[in-house]
Amino acid sequence: MLFAFDYDHVAKNFHKSDELLVLKSFDINETFLENPAYIQSKNSINRLKLHYFRKSIIEGGVVFNTLKGIVQKSKVPDSFLYMAMIESKFLISAKSHKKAVGLWQILPKTAKLLNLKINKSVDERLDPVKSTKAALKYLTYLHKRFHKWYLAAMAYNCGESRLASAIKKAGSDDIDTLMDPNCNYIPKETKAYILRLLNAALIARTKPIKEVIAKAKQEKQLKKVNIVHNTTLKRLAKRLKVSYKTILNYNQHIKSRSILSQKGVLSIYIPKNYKSGDDLKNRKKIRYKIKEGDTLLKIAKKFNISIKTLRKLNKGLTIILPVGKVITVIDNRIKAQNKTLKTASKK
């Protein structure tokens, strides 16, 4: 139980070994344990903060698990998962007055650098998977530039140019120096941000929160479904046999409730427990004759299947495709499924 915990003296529940592991994950020297601001911040953790931390994980559910899976596959330390909690409380729709949006609170300018689309049809900063991968890519770049993870976190918050100037002015990239309360090397907001991030990573290692995270493992992650033809979100919800509210909740990157023709494939997300495959996929195998200009990727996109599936269906298939050769494919295009649905409804 969460409340079988000494809330009057929460800091006493933190093991030094856990604190050292958290600091190490951010490339912070253990001497920072004696930093007055760190100690004060750690001691400020109370019943209410742990309650909201727990609540964010539970309510985040599917999103929390999805992000956790992506972070664990990256080279970014697991502690950075809680950056998304600080930024958005794991709410896909989170927005700030600075025009930053999404789980990772990405600004339009940063989105452009990270190749996230923002147009009349989509805002990929609100795409839970693409925005997470983009944020991790950005953090990896920042780490490569500044060489320490706590500096990457600082740069994420205040901007890399601002941090570079701060390091130059301080003559050091040491965290104690940069966070000196008597100097204004980095913004107060960034100092507070780092302490909040350390606190979050530390809270995640407490027994009651570990139990919540362990239970969260049973939650499903988001599953991607590729859409290649015009439809509406309501029609899509019916085909996938999910609620319209579920579609809206996890696909806020789609601005219009009608999915218009797109160049390439548009991704939407539903929880994995929904068996969308039976609704979207016409499992009947068909034959396809390779044409001039065809590639594995082009054919895979045409029929909305993966290259891996294409190769499984056609043993020995290589990147060199002989024109005229007949291969086996599965037609997963929604257009083909529409015909199947219409025929079935008439019967």
User: Which strand order spans the largest sheet, edge to edge or round the barrel?
Assistant: 1-4
Q: Give the amount of beta strand, in percent.
A: 5-15%
Low confidence ranges: 1-7, 275-282, 334-347
**CATH secondary-structure class of the largest domain:** Mainly Alpha
The description of the largest β-sheet is:
2 strands, antiparallel
Q: CATH architecture of the largest domain, please?
A: Orthogonal Bundle
| Spatial gap, N to C terminus | 55 Å
What is the strand tally?
Answer: 6
Radius of gyration using CA atoms only: 24 Å
> Percent of residues in helical segments?
40-55%
Tally of individual domains: 3
Order of helices and strands: HHHHHHHHHHHEEHHEEHEHHEH
Count every helix, treating DSSP H or I runs of 4 or more residues as helices: 17
Which structural class do you get from the secondary structure elements? mainly alpha
Give a verbal description of the structure.
51% of the residues lie in helices and 7% in strands. The chain is mainly α and 347 residues long. The chain folds into three domains: 10-216, Lysozyme (Orthogonal Bundle); 222-279, Membrane-bound Lytic Murein Transglycosylase D, Chain A; 283-331, Membrane-bound Lytic Murein Transglycosylase D, Chain A (Roll). The strands form three sheets. It has a two-stranded antiparallel sheet. The longest helix has 27 residues, at 47-73. It is elongated and about 75 Å long. The chain starts with 15 loop residues before the first helix and ends with a helix. Mean pLDDT is 84; it is low at 1-7, 275-282 and 334-347.
